[in-house]
Amino acid sequence: MPIRPRHLLPFLLILPLCGLTALAQQPSNGLQQRMSSAEFKAAGLDKLSPQELQNLDNWLSTHAKVKTKVVDSSGKPVFYAGDKSRSTINSTISGQFSGWSKGQSFTLANNQQWEVTDPDPHSCRPSDHTAVKISHSFMNFWMMYVPSCYTSVHVKRIR
Predict the structure, then answer these.
(1) How far apart, in Å, are the Cα atoms of 99 and each of 66, 69, 110, 115, 159?
(2) What are the residues facing 113 on neighbouring strands?
(3) Could you tell me which residues come within 8 angstroms of residue 52 by beta carbon, excluding any fewer than 6 positions away?
(4) How would you classify residue 70: left for phi > 0, otherwise alpha for psi between -120 and 50, otherwise beta?
């Protein structure tokens, strides 16, 4: 009896599930595998018993990784603090401005740096110290409005 595609269908549907099961059963890399032996020893982790090390690995795997790039003197993140509403920023672009393109960054007079995220480039009349207004928009996006260009662009803060 020849093998027909309809006979293979159940096996083809089950095969990916077998791979996911095997992947889920693989142990995640613990601290000892992720660190060099010098780093492991410098952190004092070589003094832990195997059970203590396993408990630490389990705790680390269940807690989210948090990366904070910029903090103030109290250790809190500088931008987008949760206890304050996001306010509008009125400033000027340092230097000459003649428009934007995706990935271009602008440094403001207040030393903040913003990067264009919109894919469409836009040209404006060249000017120095161009006024801008950056405000929070829908779904945690930011818009930079340039009055001299009569339009705005999506941006993200990078510094």
Answers:
(1) 35, 28, 20, 13, 20
(2) 107
(3) none
(4) beta
Residue pair 96/128 in contact by the 8 Å Cβ criterion:
yes
- Could you report the per-residue pLDDT of 121-158, keeping only the tens digit for each? 889 888 898 899 988 877 778 888 988 888 889 998 88
Element (H, E) at 115: strand 113-116
Cα gap 107→158, rounded to integer Å: 10
| 0.85 exceeded by pTM | no
How do the domains of the chain map onto residue ranges? 31-63, 89-157
Contacts of 35 (CB under 8 A, 6+ apart): 43, 45
Q: Which two tokens stand for residue 31?
A: 């601290």
Q: Which tens digits make up the pLDDT trace of 49-79?
A: 989 888 888 888 777 565 545 666 776 655 5
